[in-house]
Specification:
elongated, mainly alpha, RNA-binding, about 475 residues
Length: about 475
RNA sequence: GCCGCUAUCGUCUAGGGGACUAGGACGCCGGAUUCUCAGUCCGGAAACCGGGGUUCGAAUCCCCGUAGCGGUACCA
């Protein structure tokens, strides 16, 4: 039974697509009934991973069905909503490459419409003014039982808040696309406040009015709103509007199982960007948090995600954000990029211009980095002097280092061409001649030219550095021994 | 407190009464490869929260418990 709602919806979607394909394949989306979703963050902080996933799911669901996505900013709390936060959210959306078709609409800018709706409810008696304070409400509940919602007394007192009348009998049922029908007893809800004493409206009222007037057909949002939904349904009913379909996504938690927050590391979209992740990889990973393709596919292009994503396939249990898997996915995306794309991404991350040198550096590092942040440590020796790393030096520069480096210098000075292949051919005979393992020679050169024991392949590294600079650094190392 | 949601390897998940010896992926462990680090390849360990039902048969359906989470604002 719990699945019926979701199933019948699924069937409808399938039938619709089948019909559309049959009749007008090239423009099948144009024939779809108008689907309108909205992503409605409140600008009280940066867009966090949870919000980003909600945005992504809204976007995927919209694009999958060829509908429209409205971006609405829930800024009715003027105290906490700031311009900077709004800009941060837009910035995060753009970085994630999630487009919207309408907005951003400021909810606060719609206050006139909210006022009209409020007046209608007041006039019809569906809502009333009540001057009770929080303390008085609490006292009322003490008296009437904890499972009993507050019921107030109408007053004409100016400055009294406006409450919606909630019936004592019956229940309000949320037909959730992910969870099936969820019913809430009406008597457990307070006659909740829908407008402050100054008639400015509150969240649950504004959302209901806006969703209805903006003709939103599907509301996809976090699970934390499930318990609020009956209130919105009650407002909608009082106003005579048909409710949208709802889909409540399971929440995202940090590695400790608790709600995601600052101390969980890269918690905001901006932090993800700074950590060197690729937007496409983040989309791929986020899509997998709470949803999976039926064949367990892990790596999916955004097109594939759009194609396969269905809101009713989203899971019901909260998921934990695990950066390890994101890293792995990101590494896969990094390696699959063309060299031009890769170079452009690295340049943009580093704030450098694309040039041949950077391109050559990227070419030898692409296989080795999992994030954009990991690229620079691998290639900086090409742009800057070797790093000072006493540990690496002591570990590698033993007694035989001078002889090895001297021999390496000599053969490198003597070759005609200076590319990875010729460098390799020149150096390969040396270990045998000195009766040492190849690693001794290569690590000595590596530390000489990069300062570190970690770098891209040694032949490539020497080649990209160039003959003059490589010889100079080897000379400097010999001198220092 | 009250109202509600959720529960499969450490993590993300597959699973819709028999195809389950519970599958895949990340991570972890071991091996191979290489000049380092990565990467790649191969192998391994690793889970149905507990208890009752229903049924010939339950990871799957129902109930109870437990735990986690959410809501319970003149916040969103």
């Amino acid at each position: 039974m719990a699945r019926m709602g979701a199933r019948s919806y699924v069937n409808r979607v399938r039938v619709r697509i089948a019909v559309a394909v049959e009749h007008c394949a090239p423009t099948m989306m144009a024939e779809d009934p108008p689907i309108r979703l909205r992503f409605a963050p409140s600008p009280t902080g940066a867009l966090h991973i949870g919000g980003a996933r909600t945005a992504l799911y809204n976007w995927l669901a919209t694009r999958h069905s060829g509908g429209e996505l409205v971006l609405r900013i829930e800024d009715t709390d003027r105290e906490r909503s700031t311009e900077e936060n709004v800009e941060q959210i837009l910035d995060a959306m753009r970085w994630l490459e999630l487009s919207w078709d309408e907005g951003p609409v400021s909810q606060a800018s719609r206050s006139e419409r909210h006022g009209e709706a409020l007046k209608r409810l007041l006039d019809s008696g569906a809502a009333y003014r009540d001057s009770a304070t929080a303390k008085e409400v609490e006292a009322w509940k003490q008296e009437h039982g904890a499972d009993r919602g507050y019921r107030g007394e109408p007053t004409d007192e100016p400055g009294a808040a406006v409450r919606l009348r909630v019936p004592d009998e019956g229940e309000t049922v949320v037909e959730d696309l992910i969870r099936g029908p969820v019913s809430f007893p009406n008597r457990s809800y307070d006659d909740f406040v829908i407008a402050r004493g100054d008639d400015s409206v509150l969240y649950n009222f504004a959302v209901a009015v806006d969703d209805a007037e903006m003709e939103i057909t599907h509301v996809v949002r976090g699970d934390d709103h499930l318990s609020n939904t009956p209130k919105q349904l009650l407002v909608l009913a009082a106003l005579g509007h048909a409710p949208p379909r709802y889909a409540h996504l399971p929440l995202l938690h940090g590695p400790d199982g608790r709600k995601l927050s600052k101390r969980h590391g890269a918690a905001s979209v901006q932090e993800l960007r700074d950590a060197g992740y690729l937007p496409a990889a983040v989309r791929n990973y986020l899509a997998l948090l709470g949803w999976g393709a039926d064949d367990d596919a892990t790596l999916m292009s955004t097109e594939e995600l759009v194609e396969r994503f269905r809101i009713e396939d989203v899971g019901r249990a909260a998921a934990i954000f695990d950066e390890k898997k994101l890293r792995w996915i990101n590494g896969r995306y990094m390696r699959e990029m063309s060299l031009d794309e890769y170079t452009a991404a690295v340049a943009s991350y580093l704030g450098r211009e694309v040039d041949e040198r950077l391109r050559a550096a990227c070419e030898i590092a692409q296989e080795k980095a999992q994030t954009l942040a990991e690229v620079w440590p691998l290639i900086r020796f090409i742009f800057e002097p070797p790093v000072e790393d006493e540990k690496s030096w002591r570990k590698v520069m033993k007694e035989d280092a001078g002889a090895l480096l001297g021999a390496a210098r000599e053969v490198l000075a003597g070759i005609d061409e200076f590319d990875a292949r010729t460098v390799e051919e020149a150096l390969t005979p040396l270990p045998e001649r000195f009766e040492v393992k190849p690693g001794r020679l290569y690590q000595s050169i590596r530390v000489a030219i990069t300062g570190s024991t970690i770098s891209p392949g040694i032949f490539e590294s020497v080649a990209v550095l160039g003959r003059d600079e490589s010889l100079a650094r080897i000379d400097a190392a010999i001198a220092r021994l």
